[in-house]
Amino acid sequence: MPESVIAQRAPFAMEVEAGRKYAWCACGRSATQPLCDGSHKDTGFSPVIIKAERSETVYFCGCKRTGSAPFCDGTHKVL
Ligand code: FES
User: String of b and e for 63-73 (b: at least 16 CB within 10 Å)?
Assistant: First the structure.
């Protein structure tokens, strides 16, 4: 399985809406970061789907190396 691509070495802050689903790009190849655009096809990666419990700002991982996908856990600081 290939390595995930580092989309950026920082999280993506994004407003999410309560009850809406979001597909976080795990492979790093999506052109619509931090969300999936289907580019993971044939990479062995799959997006991580979440349903927002409330409307708020979340910080999706941009480096794709987080230990708590789909959210940033600070791992990007040591890459
Ligand atoms: S952006 Fe990946 S851990 Fe922070």
Answer: bbbbeebbbbe
Instruction: Report the separation in Å between the CA atom of 62 and the middle of ligand 1, taken as the mean of its atom positions.
Output: 5
Asked whether the predicted pLDDT for residue 1 surpasses 90, the reply is no
Residue-wise pLDDT for 7-26, tens only, equals 999 999 999 999 999 999 99
**Residue 30: inside a domain, yes or no?**
yes
Q: Is residue 77 part of a domain?
A: no
Ligand 1 atom with minimal separation from the 73 CA: 3
Kindly state whether residue 78 falls inside one of the protein's structural domains: no
pTM comes to 0.95
Q: How far is the CA of 68 from the centre of ligand 1 (A)?
A: 9
CA of 32 relative to ligand 1 center, distance in Å: 17
Domain count, the chain: 1
Domain span at residue 30 reads 1-72
In a 3-state reduction of DSSP, which class is residue 77? helix
